[in-house]
From TrEMBL:
The protein's name in its UniProt record: Retinoblastoma-associated protein
Compartments in which it is found: Cytoplasm; Nucleus
Assigned keywords, A-Z: Cell cycle, Chromatin regulator, Cytoplasm, DNA-binding, Nucleus, Phosphoprotein, Repressor, Transcription, Transcription regulation
Family of the protein in this entry: Belongs to the retinoblastoma protein (RB) family.
Segments of skewed composition (Polar residues): 462-473
Superkingdom classification of source: Eukaryota
Length: 753
């Protein structure tokens, strides 16, 4: 679709259909170039940049009468010299034609028209596209013809067994998404049906979304260099041990490793592109680090962060998070359905989907998780898509990646449970308390340096109170000093419990709506397993323990619920994978279905505990965790106006950078404090208010029960409820309409003065 839209801006329509043949040759040659240059052919950004290079080549070779004026002027300067040379050098022996040179002006015009970064496209041309053209020149003395390109692509297609990309150009029904008429799409609410004055905003395409995201990221980092700023250098100099040289040396090493791995995953000629991604990541890394240190300085009133800034794991995690944001902005990092594996490194070697960056830097997922929340707080201009991406990364870490063999999570858990008077990683009594989000990177990376509770050393005999000693004839044995509580582990388990309960609650609502009393019992067993039998999570998935706990409680409570039924419902949950229940670790190196795991592993380990729920004195139920809204405040979300029930404001968005996400998406945008100019605008407001009032009255006059509205509003506590569910809703609506009318009258009076 993007190719055809771009070509319509380049080529003019002619009666003999020559432009269509040119477009087909260009498309086939692009498919061939993409297959040879890229190992990861679903990289949208690099693929589109490669397409612009291909269009530049064809525009130079295209007759001027087929081009639009903006490209016709560019082609005339490029095409004439080769024409004169070819006439002079006509001979019987044809020499190999010179390699086509890049026309910078033409390429920049293409980039400007398609809102693409020109420097990146030039790099793609020089590093990848030029090499592809050179291979064609060696194979074909002249420019390859249609049948040559088709033959070359046919060989590539048969070798890769991928989808034949030529079908998209031919508009084959087997590969195209079926068109849906606008009239067939149900629109809600009904009063917002499009009329002659309505502006329909088309949805963003994946390429447009990626370009917008890249443009926003580059704009934010425009003033940030790839070296520490003056403020950051001052923080480094204030440290007891100056970390500057270690930081620079570490970046140099990680740069080489990242570029090499990026080239292996995307394509051997894309190493330069990997270096570009790394430079952007370094800029973001410095920007966020400085923001974090400023926040810590304000919070603690100190400027010496020597321990934190000399922590190699902190720096590597922060850089990895910055690079993950960069690759997510480019649309390169995502979450594939088949990405789940059996606890080892991810099997996909030709993509850069998360957790690829962890494997590149040999970074533990538990260490990476520590920086995510602080990163988002320190960089508040992140788009909501990127914030959601990082939140998904955090969930993946909690549900499986952090539980791989070799993870530092197991060592921390072992220390907690082996200490003489070990505190629970998360006490059940705190489940129903709100989750605090005031943790910082320093708290988590230096943990357990900062304990949750101070541990006092045992007093010496000389300081013991004489009265106490007289009442205590024998001295109790000395207590073993406790390990200080790990802030990072405590926060991890708080989030883990809330994620686990959310999943369990959703599955119970699907399967056990007639047995609501079983949900807290299942949660108690599930929570007990995560806290005391955490070894069951090693190289496994959180949902495997959840489904096993559900099945176990149904068995002891004589509720007929088969594992097959649980699995069927689980498949309908979002972001799930059938590998989760088909391939479960049984013993080292041996995998089987989840029912085998339940019988041979889960039941054997927890049999005594499970049978207690069938007795007359079952275990005390665990409190239900409080499920908060996302801790990551997204600035794009509407905010409630204080003192109002249903009035929200949204931040201003730049329509130039984000043309498809303008808010509010109403028929008319009203700017308060700005002159309206024409009286027709006031008339439109009157019509809008009156039509809303009539619609409201019609609803009240209906004899039958009113249909529930799909639009939701949020009460003060953040709970969702349908409009009209509160008795005061009618008077509130009338009051707001009256306020709008009053404000309109005041503005009209001011204009008349």
């Amino acid at each position: 679709q993007r190719f055809e839209k771009t070509c319509k801006k380049i080529f003019t329509l002619v009666s003999d259909g020559t432009e269509r043949e040119t477009m087909r040759n260009c498309w086939t040659m692009f498919l061939l170039a993409k297959g040879r240059v890229l190992q990861m052919e679903d990289d949208l950004v690099i693929s589109f940049q490669l397409l612009l290079c291909m269009l530049e080549l064809f525009i130079k070779r295209c007759p001027s009468d087929l081009l639009q004026p903006i490209y016709k002027s560019a082609i005339s300067k490029v095409q004439s010299p080769p024409t004169r040379t070819s006439r002079r050098n006509q001979s019987k022996v044809k020499s190999r034609p010179p390699e086509p040179e890049m026309d910078v002006q033409l390429l920049e015009t293409l980039c400007k028209e398609n809102e693409c970064n020109a420097e990146e496209v030039k790099n793609v041309y020089q590093t990848s596209f030029a090499a592809f053209l050179e291979s064609l020149v060696f194979r074909f003395p002249d420019f390859p013809q249609v049948h040559d390109l088709d033959q070359q692509y046919e060989e590539h297609y048969l070798k890769t067994r991928d989808i034949d990309g030529r079908l998209f150009f031919d508009r084959d029904e087997t590969v195209l998404v079926p068109k849906v008429e606008v009239s067939e799409v149900e629109m809600t609410p009904k009063k917002n049906l499009a009329d002659e004055d309505a502006v329909l905003i088309p949805p963003q395409t994946p390429i447009r979304a990626a370009m917008t995201s890249i443009q926003q990221l580059r704009s934010d980092l425009f003033s940030t260099g790839d070296q520490p700023s003056t403020n950051l250098y001052s923080y480094f100099n204030n440290c007891t041990v100056d970390p500057t040289q270690d930081v620079l040396k570490r970046l140099k090493t990680l740069d080489q490793e990242f570029s090499r791995s990026f080239g292996q995953a995307v394509g051997p000629r894309c190493i330069v592109l990997g270096k570009q991604r790394f430079i952007l990541g370094v800029q973001l890394y410095y920007r966020v680090m400085e923001a974090m240190l400023k926040s810590e300085e304000k919070r603690l009133s100190v400027q010496n962060f020597s321990k934190l800034l000399n922590d190699s794991t902190f720096h590597t995690s922060l850089l990895a998070c910055a690079l993950e944001v960069v690759m997510a902005a480019y649309g390169e990092s995502g979450f594939k359905a088949g990405g789940y594996n059996h606890g080892g490194g991810d099997s996909a070697g030709t993509d850069v989907c998360f957790p690829w960056i962890l494997d590149v830097f040999n970074l533990a997922a538990f260490d990476f998780y520590k920086v995510i929340e602080s990163f988002i707080k320190a960089y508040p201009t992140l788009s909501k898509e990127i914030v959601k991406h990082l939140e998904t990364c955090e969930n993946l870490i909690m549900e499986r990646i952090a539980w791989r063999t070799g993870s530092p999570l197991f060592e921390l858990l072992k220390q907690e449970h082996d200490s003489g008077a070990a505190e629970q990683v998360e006490t059940p009594a705190s489940f129903n308390q709100p989750l605090q989000h005031n943790h910082t990177a320093a708290d988590l990376y230096l943990s357990p340096v900062r304990p949750g509770h101070r541990v006092l050393p045992p007093e010496s005999p000389g300081t013991v109170n004489s009265q106490a000693s007289s009442h205590t004839p024998t001295q109790p044995p000395a207590q073993i000093p406790r390990h200080p509580k790990s802030n990072s582990l405590s926060l991890f388990y708080k989030k883990l419990y809330r994620l686990a309960y959310t999943r369990l609650k959703i599955l119970c609502s699907y399967l056990l709506s007639s047995h609501p009393e079983l949900e807290p019992i299942m949660w108690t067993l599930f929570q007990h397993t995560l806290q005391h039998e955490y070894e069951l999570m090693r190289d496994r998935h959180l949902d495997q323990l959840m489904m096993s706990a559900m099945y176990a409680i149904c068995k002891v409570k004589s509720v007929d619920l088969r594992f097959k039924t649980i699995v069927t419902a689980y498949k309908n949950l979002p972001n799930t994978n059938q590998e989760t229940f088909k391939h479960v670790l049984i013993t080292e190196g041996h995998y089987d279905s989840i029912i085998i795991f339940y019988n041979q592993v889960f039941m054997q380990r927890l049999k005594t505990n499970i049978l207690q729920y069938a007795s007359t004195r079952p275990p005390t139920l665990s409190p239900i965790p409080q499920i908060p809204r996302s801790p990551y405040k997204i600035l794009n979300s509407p905010l409630r106006v204080p003192g109002s029930n249903n009035v929200y404001i949204s931040p201003l968005k730049n329509p130039r950078n984000s043309p498809s996400i303008m808010t509010p998406r109403s028929r008319m945008l009203v700017s308060i404090g700005e002159s309206f100019g024409l009286s027709s605008r006031f008339q439109k407001i009157n019509q809008m208010v009156n039509s809303s009032d009539r619609s409201f009255k019609r609803t009240l006059d209906l004899g039958s029960a009113p249909k529930p509205l799909k639009r939701l509003r949020f009460d003060v506590d953040g709970q969702d409820e349908a409009d009209g569910s509160k008795s005061g809703g009618d008077s509130t609506l009338i009051q707001k309409l009256a306020e709008m009318s009053s404000a309109r009258s005041r503005m009209q009076e001011q204009k008349m003065k």
